[in-house]
Design goal:
126 residues; mainly beta; Mannose-Binding Protein A, Chain A; 7 strands; 14% helix; globular
């Protein structure tokens, strides 16, 4: 399955609003499901200038059990998906995943209430 991506940087928004906006557009927040997709996103010039780009990754329903919001596929394990030491729930309320720009598109857990850009994914059918 192929996908198309929309990078939304303005206005910055929290994870819940980002999720709703992607669904309104007919897609979902980015679900990094393969190494190839992770590599592609990490190289996108649209990512420069922002530290937080929300993805569909979250453990809001069950601490430590990560899933993709609005995607009916498991949060599979890609080696190196998470930045070193993540997810760590460092401040006791980090339940949403964003692309960590400084480290090749790896993920970091963060408070869902923080404002950032977001990436909508639209799945293309053959």
């Amino acid at each position: 399955m192929s996908s198309c991506y929309e990078f939304v940087s303005n206005p910055k928004t929290n994870w819940m609003d980002a999720r709703a906006k992607c669904v309104e557009r007919g897609g979902h927040l980015l679900a990094l499901e393969t190494q190839e997709e992770m590599d592609f996103i990490a190289q996108c010039p649209e990512l420069s200038g922002y530290r937080i780009w929300w993805t569909a990754g979250n453990d809001r329903d069950n601490e430590g059990v990560w899933e993709w919001a609005d995607v009916d596929r498991p949060f599979s394990s890609i080696p190196g998906r998470w930045y070193d030491g993540e997810p760590n729930d460092a401040e006791g309320g980090e339940h949403c995943a964003h692309v960590y720009l400084d480290e090749g598109g790896t993920l970091n857990d963060r408070s869902c209430n923080e404002a950032g850009g977001f990436i909508c994914e639209f799945e293309l059918t053959d």
